Amino acid sequence: xxxxxxxxxxxSSSLSEILQTLVLSKGLAEMSSNARNTVKEExxxxxxxxxxxxxxxxxxxxxxxxxxxxx
Length: 71
Fold this sequence. Notes:
- The protein has helices at residues 12-24, 28-42, 45-60.
- The relative contact order is 0.11.
- The chain is built from three helices and no strands.
- By secondary structure, it is mainly α.
């Protein structure tokens, strides 16, 4: 599912094309909904805590298994 668009960095014409696409696109509402769902699924509090715990464990040289989690 598409949830965003890319444009060439530093290119005003590329940005202009993307903005025109967004303004004229009938799929903008769907893309917006997809983006919101991506954030809700990928960046939940549980996922952020798990990533933080994994980073700390990595630095300490430990391995955290899913069974040892209290989430």
